[in-house]
Amino acid sequence: MGTIIIVGITVGLIYGLVAIGYSLIWQTMGLVHFAQGDLLMIGGFLVLTFINAGFSSPLLVCILVFLAMGLIGAFIEQVAYRPIPREKHVTRIICTLGVGLILRNLAVLLWGTSSRGLPENFFPGAALALGEVSIQPVYYWTFIIGCTLVLGLVLFLYRTKYGVAMRLTAYNPALAELMGVNSKLFQSAAFMLAIGITGVAGMLISPIAFVHYNMGLSFGVKGFTAAIIGGLNSLPGSLVGGIVLGLSEVFFGKYLSGYVDVLAFTVMILVLIFKPRGLLGKVEAEKI
Prior knowledge:
Blueprint: H1 2-29, H2 36-52, H3 58-81, H4 89-111, E1 128-130, E2 133-135, H5 137-159, H6 161-171, H7 173-178, H8 183-205, H9 215-230, H10 235-253, H11 260-274
Antiparallel strand pairs: 1-2
Helix pairs in contact: 1-5, 1-6, 1-8, 1-9, 1-10, 2-3, 2-4, 2-8, 2-9, 3-8, 5-6, 5-8, 6-8, 9-10, 9-11, 10-11
């Protein structure tokens, strides 16, 4: 039972990071970004590329992936999404699907169609004994990196003036402009931040699931489901939704392993029926 809980929390934390990316982009840009899963896949392949280039420190690789994915996010936002007016919601959503398709084909051209895994000793350290449970390095490294990333995001958003400006942009872009905040600049920064976090999630999932050009479809759906469960307009809710989904999958998969994906959609549908704004979603009243 202890091992199941550890695996569930680890996988749920990764889902939560992807969900935070969905939530951050939704709050700042009003965009449901369906290319998140494919960007997670790109992050996984970048990890392998950096390792092959001679970088062996997990923390250094994590930083490099975060920065590289942030730059990729900046390029995508400027080229694909910025030219489309914000009010054309359907067009922008279709564009995210197109970006995902381009990323998958680009991955095939650069890395091929074969599945790849990280070196077994990439995450250093010995297994930790917690009672009768043995925690392998991949799980506690994932927990440490994931929690550090979430804590850093919270401190940035709530303890720095740039984070406050980003939150104001998410709350009301017009008001942010009146306060002297360049809302377009902070929307781009938020998008870069979200893609950087998603790239790190791709690094963390790589030891658990093989990196493959088509892996983004599954993990993108799981991340979106986690965001819906927790509340698309709530960053803490996205993390909670990811952990709930991860634990549910692990417990459910113990008995009916072939129907794990069904569980994700079932939980999402139930949440939408009984708690439409998610577990921690906020009711937003529009003043006239």
